[in-house]
Design a protein that fits this description.
This protein is an all-alpha fold. It has five helices and no strands. The protein has one domain.
Amino acid sequence: MYLSKEEKERRVIDLYYNQGKTYHEIVEELKVSPNYVSAVLKKYEEEENAAAVSKIKHEQQEKKTSKEVASFKLFSEGKNTIDVAIELMLSAEEVTQFYKGFLKLKGIVQFRYNI
């Protein structure tokens, strides 16, 4: 039975992670070298790690965006930077950055902090 390169890689991953096979068992079953098994598993782990890092970065950006939007709403309601920082649990740097963005959206070029 002939397996394509992609199918062989999927089989290595399945045998190792899902079926709990050892390197030796995979080598015997698929008739591949131990170096091949190692390379496939290393590539898979690197891809999984990269995907996890990407997901974390995306979630962090979404969280920041949500806090930024919430801060704009509070600023538009007349809340000052201290109130917004407390309510949204923001650092001084974050609330300052968001306040600058809020003022920029309002078209205020020169601004003073509402601290």
